[in-house]
Amino acid sequence: MPTGKSWRQEAAIGSGPAKSGEPHFVASGWAWLVAGALLLLVDNGRNNIALAAWLAPLFMLRFLRVNRTRLALAAAYIVILATHAFAWRGMIPIPQPFYTAFVMATSAVALLCYLTDRWVADRLPGFAATLAYPLALVTFFYLDGFGLHGSWGSPAYTQAGDLALLQLLSVTGLAGVTFLIGWFAAVANRVWDRGWDSVDGKRSAALIAAVLAGVVLAGAARLAFFPAGAATVRVASLSHPDLQPEIDDAMFDDVMLNRASAAEVAAFRQRSRTMNDELLARSEQQAQAGARIVFWAEESAAVLNLDEPALLAQGEQLAARRGIYLGMALATVTPGQPHPVENELVMITPQGTAAWRYHKTKLTPSFEQTYDVRGDGRLPVLDTPFGRLSALICYDADFPQYIAQEGRSLHPGVVLDPSSDWRAIDPTHTEMASFRAIEQGFNLVRQTRLGLSAAYDYQGRQLAAMDHFRTADYTLVADVPTQGTRTLYGRWGDWFAWLCIAAFWVVFGAAIAARHRPN
User: Fold this and answer.
1) Could you tell me the sign of the dihedral formed by the alpha carbons of 63, 68, 74, 77, in that order?
2) Which residues fall within 8 angstroms of residue 517, CB to CB, at 6 or more apart?
């Protein structure tokens, strides 16, 4: 029975002459780099193909195990760098110099994860050898998630739409799905090393197949036997149509920075009234049609601070007249202040009073961090006849640890998410937000200007959707369950990520000890 050869033996083959009858291009592993490069173009980011996320690391690991030359190392980094730059084009909202630095840094870390596998895996026996890469992957992406761009880039997001697999989020968060993707690549390489006919190869293949099947079957059972079945509430959410004349970026900036003339300020105020009156009229139409909760996309109502009280009074009158909860998403401008913009969601109750004024806390790099007032970091909550209501704003949802307060202490049934995107991240950004619903066990309605608006239940099922670029109505209406659920991840937080981080150092330490152990 063939036993296969170790990757140390393949490395020797890869750096020497080709095997008889086999092109040197294949024997030295360069074919695997080409395969990996093609898959990396679509394994994440703008043109994501879910299967590619599982296969790309398989071939990149293979190449770096087989070919250990400095040329191979440089080639791998160049491939990762070029494919990352392509995959994430237009998706990261930071100036070009910072984007270049971001791509270079993340590419270097991705290469380090691959090299960790190469350095650790052949120093450890059996099962432990397959853990180096997935543990390194989880460690990097978890710790990186505390940075300025949050959880962007997590391999788990590549699996959006695979609801059976994604039920794992309710137990482990992003770390569990990330681990499985990395572990599949490492185990597949072990099978490749040992040979399909070897006992070790068969055991490794059976192990990964059993784990993946178990996770998917458990997720499918959760979907089938424990669906969201509570009473529903009708939620309507609105974005602006392309009104003319509009408040464009140049006008907004001039007013915000206190460099607009009196005539320009007057024009800003007039356009603001026109746009805000349109929002209020459409909100009343939705209330008449049966919506009990109505809210607007992020910063829909651009308004000077001196005009804000009058606008809020109109909203209060509407909410009281129609008996609705009205979420007014404002961009309140106080010209000349160090932070002149308040990006906030004001929730008006059917009694005509403001229940909360939530300011966005996780501000995007560049513009928002420079000009916006930062929130206090506490998500709002309100008990209503339609269950417990909460909210966040757009980029907030990219930080799972920030949103953890929903599952840990707030326990809302419905979370409103006024947002604003752009074409390059449509629909990715909204799909990312849906992961928070599964993790924390709430139902989510995300209204997105210049992107995908969608409602999801707490298992990630899409209840309704509306794409800004494919509609003339700019209104999303959904019947949303009023009750959420408690999840293990909501209770225990990032237990699995921290377990992986601890295990990574154990595995790394064992490899160091094995290196210095006498033969």
Assistant:
1) positive
2) none
E strands, 334-386, where? 341-348, 354-359, 381-384
- Per-residue model confidence as pLDDT tens digits over 325-380: 999 999 999 998 999 999 999 999 999 999 999 999 999 987 899 999 999 999 99
Q: How many C-beta atoms lie closer than 10 Å to residue 214's C-beta?
A: 10
Residue 86: how many CB atoms within 10 A of its CB? 15
Helix ranges (H only) for 289-322 are 308-322
Question: How many CB atoms are closer than 10 A to CB 277?
Answer: 12
Q: How do beta strands 354-359 and 381-384 pair?
A: unpaired
- State whether the Cα torsion 205-210-211-213 is positive or negative: positive
Question: CA dihedral in degrees (405, 410, 412, 418; nearest 10)?
Answer: -50
One-letter amino acid for residue 350 of the chain: P
DSSP 158: G
d(CA 66, CA 22): 15
Please give the Cα distance from 211 to 455 (Å, whole number).
31
Mapping DSSP to helix (H, G, I), strand (E, B) and coil, where does residue 151 land? coil
Which has the higher per-residue pLDDT, 166 or 19? 166
For residue 372, the 8-state DSSP code is: B
CA distance 283 to 127: 59
**CATH code given to domain 232-484:** 3.60.110.10
User: Is the pLDDT assigned to residue 195 strictly greater than 60?
Assistant: yes
Query: Residue 23: pLDDT above 70?
Result: no
Residue labelled with tokens 């992986």: 500
**Sign of the Cα pseudo-torsion (8, 11, 13, 17, in order):** negative
The HSE-up count of residue 64 (CA atoms within 13 Å, CB side) is: 30
Q: What is the pLDDT of residue 511?
A: 86
How far apart CA 355 and CA 350 sit, in angstroms, is 10
Residue ranges per structural domain of the chain: 7-226+495-516, 232-484
Are 297 and 238 within 8 A, CB to CB?
Answer: yes
**Cα–Cα distance, 412 to 81 (Å, whole number):** 41
Q: Is the peptide bond before 245 cis (omega within 30 degrees of 0)?
A: yes
DSSP 176: H
Round to whole Å and give the CA distance between 374 and 362: 8
Mean pLDDT of the chain: 91
What Rg do the C-alpha atoms of the chain give, in angstroms? 26
What are the CA-CA distances from residue 217 to residues 96, 146, 193 (Å)?
Answer: 44, 32, 29
Helix then strand then coil, in percent of the chain rounded to 5, is 55, 15, 30
356, β-bridge pairs: 347
Is the pLDDT score of 120 beyond 90? Answer: no
Q: What is the pTM of this model?
A: 0.92
Dist. CA 228–CA 233, nearest whole Å:
13
Q: What is residue 25's predicted lDDT score, i.e. its pLDDT?
A: 58
Q: Is 383 helix (H, G, I), strand (E, B) or coil?
A: strand
